[in-house]
Amino acid sequence: GKGGYDHYMLKEINEQPTALGRSVRGRADPEAGTVDLDGFPPGTFEGIERVHLVAMGTSYHAAMYAESLLASRGVPARAFMASEYATAPPPAEDGTLVVAISQSGETADTIAAVRAASAERTLVVTNVVGSSLTRECDDALLVRAGPEIGVAATKSFSSQVATLSLLAERLRRDVVGSPSPDAAAFLSALTALPDQVQQVVESGAAERVADSFADSEAYFFIGRGPGHAVALEGALKFKEITYEHAEGFTAAELKHGPLALVTEDTPVFAVFDGRDGDTETLGNVQEIRARGGPVVAVASGDAPDVADAVDHVLPVPATHPDLVGVLANVQLQLVAYHAAKRRGRSIDKPRNLAKSVTV
Ligand code: M6R
């Protein structure tokens, strides 16, 4: 059942601390700066030279997030929409690891991508034991988020990113030959993430923001790096359950076209992750506000220059820059949820959509 919540989606948003704990527990040793993935001991990925991540929808956004994590760890990686990979697979090359990401393990487009890559080594990161993709792929890594009923993927995304974070550290060690320089700090931040997600779900800020923009024409989401993946995911969640026009962009992309859409009726949600790129994102925010566009920053509460430059802040606790996106995404899940609830939408079963897209 819904355990006292109005919707499965809200229940699953609230389950994220537990789900994340399960994804990470016993798999990360922050003191030693090492990961211990069952079935993937050190050396598992020796000989791998590049990673292709294939997925659809929310899982594709987790793939984009992982692409950033891998690239910054010196592991060449590219995220592909699984459908495009299946249509035009890159040439088979020795040393490629194809990582499929799928909550259900049953997504037809993702299965097609794995079949198109049959000459490569394949690994699925999935939430469902015994799903089709676990049979199609050479190896499976479970995200352990627990069953997800709401059509809108929530806790599965957080747990996918956590699991892919561990995989990124394993790959870094095997591909580059040494752990990431800040592996200990990263893994300790990963271990602290469940409590921080708990703080976000208890904060109440997202509902107030959703209420302030109840009558807007469209909703835009911007970010860079992992924050770009989160911007796309924020927009997908918002359009999926509110039926409003929502779009995500890289922050820099705005001035190359989308800025033409910005008016005082189009709030823009900007993800700040505490990296150098924040300065540029702040510049993009000023361009939006100069056109009258309201801006909501999703940022670490202790970034004072951001708070002064925007209309609202959805605060997230301070963490490793690679993990700010997970916390920011929870704020955006809550904004979408409250905006959809206000509009009386069918939150757990949005029109035209199915939980598992097997065709
Ligand atoms: O089960 P999968 O992760 O393979 O599903 C992929 C997409 O169909 C899924 O993430 C979809 O985009 C969600 N409804 C998003 O909330």
TrEMBL record:
GO BP annotations listed: fructose 6-phosphate metabolic process; protein N-linked glycosylation; UDP-N-acetylglucosamine metabolic process
Enzyme class: transferase
Enzyme Commission number(s) of this protein: 2.6.1.16
Residue stretches making up the SIS domain: 41-177, 209-350
Source taxon at top rank: Archaea
Sections of the chain in a coiled coil: none
Keywords: Aminotransferase, Glutamine amidotransferase, Repeat, Transferase
Catalytic activity field: D-fructose 6-phosphate + L-glutamine = D-glucosamine 6-phosphate + L-glutamate
A GO molecular-function annotation: carbohydrate derivative binding
Physiological role: Catalyzes the first step in hexosamine metabolism, converting fructose-6P into glucosamine-6P using glutamine as a nitrogen source.
Protein name from the UniProt record: Glutamine--fructose-6-phosphate aminotransferase [isomerizing]
